[in-house]
């Protein structure tokens, strides 16, 4: 099952990254939403999710300055902070995938972000890191190891947890279940009946769960 899930994940990711064009997500009476992709991902991976959020009435923004998201968490958090301030967003909700959730949690501690962002909906985020990253050849992935100092500091900081909804699949081949019961103490945890780390981003059941979480946080 692990091999099958991984192959299906990578196949979906490759197709999602290559989709051309940029949708018009302006307008809408709901709260603004900022999408933050995971490592080595562009905003295109979150396109289906952005479409669903826009249909639900939300203005959706992306972070082109993030590139392929291979830099340290603090760098991504600063990109998020600058974007929120440049767009003059208020009452925004960040919707993030995987490493994007770590970036958003880091950003919530920065001046100028906590006052403008109502909360975070994190999909398949390794809040404790992922043990699979520990021996990965690329340094950008090894930074997601539970041994990494930045990951350990972030995991120990529970301040933002009341404003986090963590959505996870039933089975994730890239992010093992948290071993520390306090890893998300104070946050809301939701499990969706889906398998995979990437391909669930295209599933309407995940979209429904994310829209519901966004509307709960914005209220």
From TrEMBL:
User: Where in this chain does the record put each AB hydrolase-1 domain?
Assistant: 32-127
Database matches in SUPFAM superfamilies:
alpha/beta-Hydrolases
Membrane-spanning segments = none
Provide the alphabetized UniProt keywords: Hydrolase
- InterPro entries to which the protein is assigned, alphabetical: AB_hydrolase_1 (IPR000073), AB_hydrolase_fold (IPR029058)
Q: Work out whether the entry's keyword set contains Hydrolase.
A: yes
Per the record, the domain of life is Bacteria
Q: Which GO terms describe its molecular function?
A: hydrolase activity
Q: What is this protein called?
A: Alpha/beta fold hydrolase
> What species is this protein from?
Kineococcus endophyticus
């Amino acid at each position: 099952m692990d091999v099958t899930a991984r192959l299906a994940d990578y196949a979906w990711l490759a197709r999602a990254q290559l989709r051309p064009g940029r949708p018009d997500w302006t307008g809408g009476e709901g709260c603004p939403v900022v999408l933050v992709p995971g490592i080595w991902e562009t905003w295109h991976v979150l396109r289906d999710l952005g479409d669903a959020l826009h249909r639900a009435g939300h203005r959706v923004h992306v972070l082109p300055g993030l590139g392929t998201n291979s830099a340290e968490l603090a760098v991504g958090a600063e990109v998020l902070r600058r974007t929120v301030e440049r767009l003059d967003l208020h009452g925004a909700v960040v919707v993030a995938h995987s490493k994007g959730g770590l970036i958003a949690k880091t950003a919530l501690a920065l001046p100028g972000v906590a006052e403008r962002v109502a909360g975070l909906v994190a999909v398949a985020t390794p809040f404790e890191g992922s043990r699979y990253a520990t021996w990965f050849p690329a340094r950008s992935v090894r930074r997601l190891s539970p041994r990494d100092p930045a990951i350990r500091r972030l995991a120990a900081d529970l301040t933002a947890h009341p404003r986090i909804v963590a959505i996870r699949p039933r089975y994730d081949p890239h992010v093992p279940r948290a071993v520390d019961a306090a890893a998300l103490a104070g946050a809301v945890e939701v499990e969706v009946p889906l398998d995979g780390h990437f391909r669930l981003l295209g599933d309407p059941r995940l979209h429904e769960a994310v829209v519901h979480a966004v509307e709960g946080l914005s209220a």
